[in-house]
Amino acid sequence: MPNWYAHVTVATVVEREGSYLLVEERDKSSGRIVFNQPAGHLERGESLQQAALRETLEETGWSVSLEGVLGLALYTAPGNGVTYYRTTFCARAVGPQAGATLDPDILAVHWLDYEAILANSARMRSPLVLAAIDQHRSGLRYPLDLIAPP
What we know:
By secondary structure, the chain is α+β, with helices and mostly antiparallel strands.
């Protein structure tokens, strides 16, 4: 019997002037084009915070400053049966980084207001995307030191 483990991922909710930073990407398990927060897997040797900053830059070309933790979630993707343990951060946009090269899986980067996100809710990568935005809109925040330093 193979060992079971959850894949550790991070995501970042970045809001600027009423719009949220989202990426458009192809879901590898379904082939659908979906929207997601900048998100990805934790790499060996990095902290959750470092992973969130790295993934946001790699997927959007934007530098951000983490401001808090929105929440933790377990999600089992119906398309592949993989369970993900996701830490979602909220961040402030610092600015686009000149010369940044986007991850090749990213089709487009968007700043969408809440109404546009709701209009595209069927195209969200998972229910966690809209849930995180709703958490952000509610003002929910936990301090960054909720996560112990490595």
